[in-house]
Amino acid sequence: MSWKSRKVLGMVLVVSTLSWLLVLVGSVGLVSAYGAGETWQLGFAGTGTLSGMGFGFWGWCTFTGQTSGSVGDCQISQYLHMMGNSQNIQCQTHFDITSWSAQPGALTPLTGAPDFFVNSGTITVNPTSATQACASFLSAAGFDVSVAAPGTLTINGPSDMALPAAPGHYSLSGLTLGGVSYTELQIQVSQK
């Protein structure tokens, strides 16, 4: 088996495992693993292409409030594979959200639900050497971010997370939105 075949098989196994974990967590009811104050808990994973880059991600978010709020937190791991060269970038991002809202977004026509939008906050990027590449990827995906310092991005305005603000499991594999083509996209949303 070639290196590329093993790598693709590995990605498929990781995404499949995460998808099953999301379904399992959703089937046992709302789990408050993060804390007692959050209203929303989301888990998600996906793979696809954007602007000549292959990418993958998985993560979770929590939001406090019903349809808006001033507290949110996300931990998202993503990898970017630059097509045409051997550069691969991995980003670990922590979103410290200071304003969020639920409003019509990119997924609304498909889900019938508003999307979570992040209106302000900061994103910590690790490793710091990936700050600019992660900012470019997030900008290409529709986020209004700028580099504040190595390892720190500022969220400057409404940025559609493309995560539905309604409880349920969403399997949106094969979806293309604004230049982003998802091979696999699984989202689990729980609300207290």
From TrEMBL:
UniProt protein name: Uncharacterized protein
UniProt source species: Candidatus Marsarchaeota G2 archaeon OSP_D
Lineage of the species this protein comes from: Archaea, Candidatus Marsarchaeota, Candidatus Marsarchaeota group 2
